[in-house]
Amino acid sequence: TGMSETFTERLRSLQRDKQTALCVGLDPDPERLPDPLSEMEPLEAAREFCLDIIEATAPFACAFKFNLAFFEALGDGGLRVLREVIGAVPENALTIGDAKRGDIGNSARFYARALFDDLSVDACTVAPYMGRDAVTPFLQRRGTAAFVLARTSNPGADDLQTCTIDGEALYQRVGRLTREWASETPADAGLVVGATRPDAVARLRELCPALPFLIPGVGAQGGSLKSCLELGTTGEGTVIINSSRSIIYASEEGDYAEASAQEAERLQQEMKYYLAE
Amino acid sequence: TGMSETFTERLRSLQRDKQTALCVGLDPDPERLPDPLSEMEPLEAAREFCLDIIEATAPFACAFKFNLAFFEALGDGGLRVLREVIGAVPENALTIGDAKRGDIGNSARFYARALFDDLSVDACTVAPYMGRDAVTPFLQRRGTAAFVLARTSNPGADDLQTCTIDGEALYQRVGRLTREWASETPADAGLVVGATRPDAVARLRELCPALPFLIPGVGAQGGSLKSCLELGTTGEGTVIINSSRSIIYASEEGDYAEASAQEAERLQQEMKYYLAE
C-alpha cells in the first residue's frame, strides 16, 4: 500500500487514475437493508451487504467511508465484520474510519490504535472540541490521515460552528489550528466540510490551500456536487465527496448491488465532467 | 434499577446512602496492568482486572466510568468484555460509558443504541461540536443521562473552549445549550467539567444550577477535590468526581485490588468530610 507516499499523494494519484472523487459511505442500518438480506442473521446481513456494495462500486470510488456507529450497534462481532469488510476494499481505493473520536491524549492514543492498527484504515475522522492533544495522536502514522470536523452538514451545526471569535467563525479557527497541527506531525490532516455549506468550502480552501477535504452531504442531504468541486479543488486542493444513503440504498430489491453501481457511476461521471472543466 | 426515577434522583439517593461522590474510572491499559495479570491473554487480563477493581472499590463509589477507547483497542471481544464488566457493577452504583461520541442524528441514534441498549450503561459522555441533533439522540431514555463535554481538563482544552463569543466563553455557551436541550428531552443532561478548572465549575454551576457535573481530573491530573466539591454542590447541584489512574493503578503487585480499595476509601472519606462541612 505504498507507505512511503503520504495519504494525500495516494489520494491524488488514485483520483487521477480513476477519474473520481467519490467516496462511498457504508452505514449499514439493519432496518434499511434490501429485502433479500432481511431474513439473514444481522451480522451476516451487514457483512454480505457491505461486501456486495464494495465490489459493485469500487470501480467508481477513490475511497470507502465506514461509519463506526452502525457497526458498534451490531453488538458482539460488529467490529470483526467491520475489519473484514475494510479488508475487502481493493488496493486502488482508500478506507476511512468515520469515528469522530475526541478524547484526552492517553485515550486518543488507544482510539488511534483501534482504528489504524486493529481496523487498518487509511484515514479517520476526529472531533476538535478538546483541542490539540485530542487530535495529534491521530496524526502519528505517515501514509495515513485524520480529517478534523470543521463545518458539518447537519441542522445543529450552527449551534457552535458559526459562532464568531475575533472576527472569524469557530469552524475557521478549527481550520487554522488543523493546518498548524498538520505541519508538525508525520501524517496528513484534512477537514470535514459539509456539502450543504459551499461558503465554508470556499473559506476553508482559502485558509488551508493544501489540506484534503472530506465532503459529506451530497445526495440524500442535498448538497451541490458542482459547487463543492469547483470551490474545493483550487490550487493543490483535493476533495473527497462522500455519498452514503443515495448509493447504498439505491434499491430495496435483489438488484441492490447493480443499483448502487449505477448511482456510483452516475456520480463519478458527473464529477469527471466538472473536474475536466 | 428504578427506571421510574430520573438518573439524577438515583444519583442523589446513592450519594446520600453511601456518602460518596466518587466515580472509579476504568481505563485498562494492557501495558499498565499489575504484574500478576501480565502473563494472561489480554482480553482475559482486562476482564479480570476490571472485575477485581469493581468488587474492591464498589463500597466507596457512586459510579463507575468505562472509557471505551481502552476496550475498543483490545480488538475482537473488547466490547463483549466491556458488557460483562458493566454487568458486574452492583445495583448501588451507576455506570457511565465514556464514549465522547458526536455525530449527525441518524448515526447518533445508533451510537446511543450501542451504549444504552447493547452495553446497558446508565449514562454516557457526548461531544457538543456538531450541536443539538448530535446530542439529543442520547437524551431519549428516561432514567439515563448524557454528560456533554463543556470544559475539559487536558492541555489542549484552551484551543477552543475558552474562545470568547458574545462576551462568554465557548464552554459557557455549551452549558447554556445543554440546559436548554435537557429541558426538552426525557433523559437528564449533565456537563463534563475538568477538576483542573475550578473557575469553570463555578461559572457553569451559576448557569446550570440543577445539572449534574461529571468532574474528571482529580488524582493523576492534579485537580483539587475540595474546590470542586465546594463550587459544584451549591443548591440542587450534584457532582460526580472521577478518578481513574490514581485508583486503578495504586499498586503494580498482587495487592492491586486492596490498594485500589484503600485509595478509593481515602477519597471517599475526604469527600464525606467536605460534603458534611
Provide a descriptive summary of the structure in words:
The structure is a homodimer of 277-residue chains. Chain A is built from eleven helices and ten strands. Chain A is of the alpha/beta class. In chain A, the strands form two sheets. An eight-stranded parallel β-barrel of chain A has the order 1-2-3-4-5-8-9-10, surrounded by six helices. In chain A, strands 6-7 form a two-stranded antiparallel sheet. In chain A, helix 2 runs parallel beside helix 4, helix 7 packs parallel to helix 8 and helix 8 packs parallel to helix 9. The relative contact order of chain A is 0.16. The model of chain A has no long low-confidence stretch (mean pLDDT 95). At the A-B interface, helix 3, helix 4, strand 3, helix 5 and helix 6 of A face helix 3, helix 4, strand 3, helix 5 and helix 6 of B.
